[in-house]
Amino acid sequence: MSRRKPLPKLLYADSRGNIYDHPYLTMAGMSGNEAQLPEAVELIPLPEDSRLFTIPDTPPVAWDSRERRFVTVSQVKEGKRSMPVQAVSAFMAPGYMRTLLPACDYSKKKVHLPLWSYTAVGWDAEEERFVVAATRVDANENWLPKNYDDRKLDPLVRRRLAEFPKNRLVEQLSRCAVDYHCFAAKNLFFRRWEAPIPTSPVCNSRCLGCISLQPSDCCPSNHERIPFVPTPEEIVELMLPHLEEAPEPIVSYGQGCEGDPIMQADTVATATRMLKERASRGTVNFNSNGSIPDRIRLLCDAGMDSMRFSMNSVQEELYNRYYRPKGYRFADVVESVRTAKGKGLFTMINYLVSPGVTDSPAEVEALLAFIEKTGVDMLQMRNLSIDPAFYNERMGVTGKGIGMYRLLERVKEAFPRIQYGYFNRTRENFYPAGFEKGWPIVV
Ligand code: SF4
Ligand code: SF4
User: Fold this and answer.
1) Measured distance CA(398)–CA(357) in Å, rounded
2) Secretion signal: which residues (predicted)?
């Protein structure tokens, strides 16, 4: 007879950040603002290369099986003394989608949390390991930190700077690689996998969690945007050798923390045409907010292989609250996705997900309709990096979601051809053998 595995223990930290597991309280997570117990299917070992954080001055919430209720744990007894405690959160290695937020009493939080993605974490006492509420959505291991050894990087950066002395883009990317530790920029210097092409100092959205610009009420951004628009010649000089020589070569516009490359569509279209005429191999990808469908048409015709469109929600109201668009509407984004798919490109959504918002019944229904309408190929389930309490408040969250794991199941059931992922793909790998059964991924 199979025995039910005991639930993981609560983790908490003392005021100095030392982490402990609680002798009897059980780990909880949060969907929106509501505490809940994780299902067995969504508990996996903390992925290698993840990190643990404390959530300062914020007491954890746990399940007390003796009292059969959730409790806020402000103090823990140490011998005869009681000590104040704070919650612990995981920041996972990429490739994993969190299914629950850390359970805490966020009303006690005094600081605005920096732009990381916060995940519920506990302690599996039986296996003696940390566990998180998450599911793996991408099996690509290229992006693991162990593949980015800076000792090997520095000589390569110096070499490329000397190789292209007049190219402003290589100078910018050296800063991205060395100062911001951007893995994509490092790939350019390692000449492998996916390399980024930053092109745009400006954007027509004002996202609450933009990592390159924070206009007002959130927190400081951690990257400075590229201050110029490179010429098509600068782009081609740097990216053509990458396409020709790198293993699994992808070059990607709009890879994360610049403005949006749709604002530089003419430059991008010219550079892409040149790259596609001259390169005998490789994938050219465009990441964008997709705000201007005519420009998307232009870029498809220039020879782009794939496009990825970012959104936090497929409901216009929630999209507007996060993206705060300037001069476009969510309907334009939908038209862009349809256009890219209609032109035969591999079309992806960079879906910025958060438990309680993304798996709310209204969002799930809207997502199913969106997939039907656009024909999109892949959902990249990206954990939105933002203070969870701030985001829930701005999104007006009420109630809890159906469960992030259940959401993935539901979408797969309705559209077996939908692929989940976290990273962009080479064109050879757009539709790998057996892709309809590509999730769940066994960890
Ligand atoms: S993602 Fe950001 S840090 Fe990386 S290359 Fe692009 S602009 Fe630079
Ligand atoms: S679309 Fe991208 S660049 Fe523009 S505000 Fe949003 S996160 Fe920032």
Assistant:
1) 9
2) none
CB 254, CB 288: distance < 8 Å: yes
Tell me which residue has its CA closest to atom 3 in ligand 1: 176
How remote is the CA of residue 224 from the centroid of ligand 1, in Å?
A: 9
Q: Whose CA is nearest to atom 8 of ligand 2?
A: 210
Q: 387: Cβ–Cβ under 8 A, 6 or more apart, which residues?
A: 112, 113, 114, 118, 218, 219
Query: What is the ipTM, given to two decimal places?
Result: 0.96
- Ranges under pLDDT 70 in the chain: 1-3, 213-223
Q: Is the CB of 260 under 6 A from ligand 2?
A: yes
117 class by beta-carbon count within 10 Å (0-12 exposed, 13-18 middle, 19+ buried): buried
**What are the boundaries of each domain within the chain?**
9-136, 145-437
Measured CA to CA, the distance from residue 140 to residue 129 in angstroms comes to 23
Atom from ligand 1 closest to the CA of residue 196: 5
pLDDT for 235? 98
At the top level of CATH, which class does the domain 145-437 belong to? alpha beta
